[in-house]
Amino acid sequence: MSSGASGGGGGGGAASGGGNSNHQRGAAQRPNGQTQNKICQFKLVLLGESAVGKSSLVLRFVKGQFHEYQESTIGAAFLTQTICLDDTTVKFEIWDTAGQERYHSLAPMYYRGAQAAIVVYDITNQDTFGRAKTWVKELQRQASPTIVIALAGNKQDLANKRMVEYEEAQAYADENGLLFMETSAKTAMNVSEIFLAIARKLPKNDQSGGGGGGAGGSSQGRRLAEGDSGSRGPAGACCK
Amino acid sequence: MDEEYDAIVLGTGLKECILSGMLSVSGKKVLHVDRNKYYGGESASICPLEELFSKFGAPPPDESYGRGRDWNVDLIPKFLMANGSLVKLLIHTGVTRYLEFKSVEGSYVYKGGKISKVPVDQKEALASDLMGMFEKRRFRNFLIYVQDFTADDPKTWKDFDPNTQNMQALYDKFGLDKNTQDFTGHALALHRDDSYLNRPAIETVNRIKLYSDSLARYGKSPYLYPMYGLGELPQGFARLSAIYGGTYMLDKPIDEIVLGEGGKVVGVRSGTEVAKCKQVYCDPTYVPDRVKKTGQVIRCICLMDHPIQNTKDALSTQIIIPQKQVGRNSDIYVSLVSYTHQVAAKGWFVAMVSTTVETDNPEAEIKPGIDLLGPIRQKFVSVSDYYEPTDDGLQSQMFISQSYDATTHFETTCLDVLDIFKRGTGEEFDFSKIKHELGDEEQ
Ligand SMILES: Cc1cc2nc3c(=O)[nH]c(=O)nc-3n(C[C@H](O)[C@H](O)[C@H](O)COP(=O)(O)OP(=O)(O)OC[C@H]3O[C@@H](n4cnc5c(N)ncnc54)[C@H](O)[C@@H]3O)c2cc1C
Ligand SMILES: Nc1nc2c(ncn2[C@@H]2O[C@H](COP(=O)(O)OP(=O)(O)OP(=O)(O)O)[C@@H](O)[C@H]2O)c(=O)[nH]1
Ligand SMILES: [Mg+2]
User: Fold this and answer.
1) Which of B29, B32, B35, B243 to mutate to test the interface with A (most CBs of A within 10 A)?
2) Is ipTM > 0.90 here?
3) Which Gene3D superfamilies match (chain B) (predicted)?
4) What is the mean pLDDT of chain A?
5) Which residue's alpha carbon is nearest to atom 36 within ligand 1?
């Protein structure tokens, strides 16, 4: 089976809405025998100072919604969304921080095995840009060496209160090999675009996308679920 | 920090993280603090390798060890029983979503100086070199009895009362010899010593059932091990706690546990900050004056560039040396994990030999285990005290966990956690409080 069902049974489908979701689970055979689609699943983590709009970006991307008074994240921390890309369906398993970063106490487990990260700052707040740089460093040091990192300058709709110049951020992103876009969860500007750009940059053929280390090999573990005999975990899973 | 909480949890060891998760899920406002700047306390996995070497005062590792960050070395070796209480907790709490596991490849038992695969089903029993032919047949009958045994159906007990008759009597009923009793009691039922022989048989029968149910789940062996090491477990439960509103602060020294009227805890002080609370949950290191030392555990971490001989080159394995085989009162445990679990650089293995200390020369006690390993590139020995709380915490509202014992599985860990939760909240943990269906976080 090529798609990593995250848990036994039928659950785990992509969230509805979003516009471009595709619920197909396996490489469907067309009547004429042609393979229509392959599915790649990736773990994507969000990082950034509190209140920069991490959860808002996810909510916009997954459900097409925005809340002016988005509460500080508790309760929901794990969403999925799929994107169609040419002949490939890219399924993102999106992790939000659950607030653990607030007192600099984010567990490394959070970005373990992540193939992609969006580091978010608020363009109206210089401190959040500094914090974003710290996160990039942390990822470069701790996460998988092949991780795709995107920098998102969020709240672009508030450009009149801008404190971080576009050029400054772009230069920093170039130096560090990051994707970069200014986004707005409020107006939806560049939100699906940044996820799409990540999807394009992710390797879609090699097995060892994830993993914090170069140990490689048949490095995949399995998720545990009630009553099943273990489905393959999605981290590191990719098309075959 | 200057706020009021229902509970403050000190230490981010596995037990404290599970408790923190269960408390948050039950609607309690939780502050979780650790004096270290990493998660896991005693149950952390040390990364990078340089950190492990310096922790034990050794000169830094050379290049042959590969990249330091590819290593995550556990301080306490344990495996999960695939059908055991920790896996049930992981599944019911949904924490399993954050983790990935691999089956441990083999389970071995030591007899007469060499190791043999622990036979778990009738087929393996027949092929095993642990028993002679007649004994095999008796062991087979015993396994069938255990398999068919149902606690609430006396018909399956076959003229034996498992609630009043002891395990020795059940062994005798099947005519099992001392050797077979040894590996059944220690490698299948995972008893640490022989006191179980005089207790009702039901306990051991259930343990053997757990072993074979666990085995039935994923094959090969009944044990599971998390990718990136055991340190992922506390982090997973910490995330659960955070998702349900728990506040996390690492790198926060605790200077005082503040007591009020009647010796009841009212808060925790760090520097000049005081967080108020109704209860404290913590590991023994935070309350040295409220715990008593009841023993010692020796653990020896061995870094090797090869698997253990006679294990079919298993990349992960457990070996149990039953006490009697080496003239001891408690078993010696050997566990092995490797690069395939992302806990070591490519080609490397981490073995751990541990036991309950019985003499004043603990290193000599683990020699039979060390001798099985073959050449060892680097050895780190630690002897740690085993602590238990001096009281049940009901008066002070401070609930203290026990140190981690020498067993190589988590069953005792979970029992302690569930017991503490019950004492602290006055109720059993209600798993239905968790909206754990897979889709729940996708709402
Ligand atoms: C059909 C058969 C053929 C055998 N052929 C040989 C052989 O050619 N060469 C050889 O060295 N061993 C032979 N044996 C013995 C066998 O290999 C082992 O010695 C025996 O299995 C001892 O291990 P155990 O733990 O099963 O003994 P147990 O099952 O514990 O023995 C149970 C009881 O049976 C008795 N017992 C064991 N073996 C025998 C026997 N062969 N005759 C009578 N009583 C016995 C024991 O003394 C003991 O009291 C044979 C056994 C059987 C059943
Ligand atoms: N104007 C504007 N406001 C935004 C945008 N994105 C988020 N916000 C607002 O910023 C606030 C914080 O957003 P969140 O999504 O909760 O931020 P977060 O990074 O998840 O915060 P934590 O969960 O506390 O770490 C909310 O009030 C949002 O409505 C945006 O693009 N434009
Ligand atoms: Mg948030």
Assistant:
1) B243
2) no
3) FAD/NAD(P)-binding domain, Guanine Nucleotide Dissociation Inhibitor, domain 1, Guanine Nucleotide Dissociation Inhibitor, domain 2
4) 76
5) B134
